Please model this.
Amino acid sequence: GVYTTLNPCLPALLGRANERLRANVDRTQDKEISHLRNLLVDLDPIRPAGISSSEAEHDAAVGMASEIEADLKELGWPEPLMADSGNGGHLVYPLELEQTPEHVELLKRVLQALAWRYDVRLKELGLELDQKVFNPARISKLYGTVAGKGENLPERPHRRARILSLPAERVPVARALLEEMAAEAPPERGVQAGKPAPPGVKGPQAGPPGPPPASGRGAMDVAAYLAHYQKEVVKVKPHGTSMLYCLAECVFDETHQGNEAAVGQTADGALFYQCFHNSCKERLWAEARRLISGDDKLVRFFPGGRGVQAGKPAPLVKGAQAGKPGAPKPGPPGGPEPPEGSLPQVIITHRFLQEKSGESLAALEQGNDPPVIFVRTGALARVLKDENNSPHIDTLSDMALRGLLCRRALFYKQTAQGLLPASPPMEIPRDIMALGDWSFPPLEGVTGIPIFRPDGSVCRTPGYDPATRLYYAADPDLEQMPELLEDPDAEIVTMFKEMLLDIYCDLPFAEEADKANALALLCTLPLRPAIAGLIPMAVITAPTPGTGKSLLADVIALMGTGKVAPMEGLSNTDDETRKLITSLLDKASPLICFDNVEGSLRAPSLARALTCTIWEDRILGQSATVSLPQRALWLATGNNVQLRGDLPRRTFPIRLDAQMSKPWERKEFRHPRLRDYVRHYWPDFLAAIYTLGRAWILAGRPQPAQELPVLGGYEAWVETLGGILAFAGVEGFLANLDDFHAAADQEGQEWEAFLETWHSILGEQGVSCAEIKTALGESSEFAATLPGYLGDVFKNPERSFERSLGKALAQKAGRPYGEKNLAVQQGGQVRKVLRWQVAPLGQRCTGGTPVPPSVGLGFTEKP
Model:
């Protein structure tokens, strides 16, 4: 690998290897570093040495880097460089420090404090924060080069280290912020108990003889800190190389009194907490600090900080009432009097977490009318609009929930001066999010158009609709939508049908069935809440480019969302397709369109999504999984799209054919700007669709006289749209389905031809893959029928045809093809070699009256 120092070297080193790569050159030493310019926060998965991280481990580390960056930003830290190290995550914070032992020790303590601060989260994810990268000559992976630990395996691949984000400008971390963070570091071993460093210990850990000055350079003013937060100090005394500030009572247990508890400060400025009682002996400074000052910044108590130095410390509260809830009275000296009858008040000092979280949650619930906080897929969520006014669902982060808490309750700290306004500490929103059981309403989706309910009524009031569990984020353009007729008659139905069909007057549909399918597609999104179950994917295809496929997709999207279709591209890898689907469903996208599909389309993840009501996938950057409702409308456009795998039976066709070589040169359109036309009359078109749906429901949901085609798994959509179109007098819905499946399923046709030829040449005897290869070599007719990639493998002597054929036969075993229902099946083993045979399968379903499950099983039917 290629590594570089994080900090600039002395100019004299340039003579050794100036801008060149040279072998056998000594590594740069700490003394050869001129300045400290960068602080590296290095996150790596905990794994055996010498191997690369897995995808889950790698994503968890990069995700944790984002969490730390967001948390430190809240503390006032500037934006860092964020990078992917190839195996983990990097944050590189700018510094402007001289290269001195004092500053090196400061960075060491900062890394220790960061590791302590995120200890629980790191353990949850199986990560570690490297605390050894503080030395000045530390080297790090050069971004843009490959991290190649161990073998390059599919499950643990080599990856390129890369920069993920750069700050707009280089802003160094203020020294006061570094010192504040360093103060949170746990004490060194032996220091926590207040003991001096053991004999022989040298360097910063040992410290100079005698107690350090309370306000010395780089050290926090402990006396001012304790006085400010009303902690009575009864004695200050040296203890070895440390200084103890003995408290009137322990912050963890008020019964521990009489110099039994103390806040200590080592010679190098590190803080610790000690109490001689066994119940408190394991307590650390970070825990004590949270009880004393919560999440307050401590910059003011360091040299150069603002606050305490500007005035005298607040007066002490003596005795057992110091720092107790209820002791200080709210009043003007400490801040404004909380307005009566306004938001709920939450006191955050010296209380159990469950008490603070409970009151905060109650405030959220009380203020959630009308609802803005929801429960979706086991997490808290809200509805947002992007810069294009498009609504989407956003899973609440702890920072977002904290912002909502600030707007639903007033948070205060109790001091001797009264109630001081405060921000809710991060532990409160995180605890609320971890509950997993809330009373907020469930949310299944968001829409920008009025909600058509299953009973035919239409919700036109913006906001949450409990009947459908949908949120109506009203589009302003729909304020002028006409009122719907209560009881539309046949004449109105016919008029609205013609109005909708007129939208398509300039599109060259190949058949009337394609136009009927397109009209059904136009009505699907507006009527989606009334359709139970799933919707098949519409494949909009044509023989030549420029026929209007993307235009039709935009019209469908405009009708259902008011926006043109967000055109997505399908990746060549199914793993990327899966990630794309997860991200789109996570935002509750109502319409998903894959544009310009080329050649054959095989996407197992897409096929899975089309047949599941709940989509489950691993969250990017985490090891956890997410479960998302799947109620989207799916489109795919392309020229002569061929479908493979399980996709053909999960789709329906809309074919356009202008029957000319350059269809984009057509002229004389009735609606030359179709998108603008649909957008202009959008409220009227929606009213027409709602009226057709309502009229069909009020008529008793009649089904067409001619039986509708069977599309397994999508019966509700077929019955609803087929019923509405037939009721309006539109014929041909899905009439081209069988022909489309036959033409689109190229893979099925190839296997049908292959099995028929196999059956005619080899009969129904069991044969091995080697014997099949021999037969293929003897018959060019047989070899010509090899499906898909098997033909290429057969012609390539460097590849194992028998192995590829065996895998393909195992995948197709038991599936019948053609009118003869020919299927490949295992034919036993001979000398441990698996044999295969092709034979027709029996008729699996003969129809007739269903037999109740109780018949013949000894059960008695209930009356």
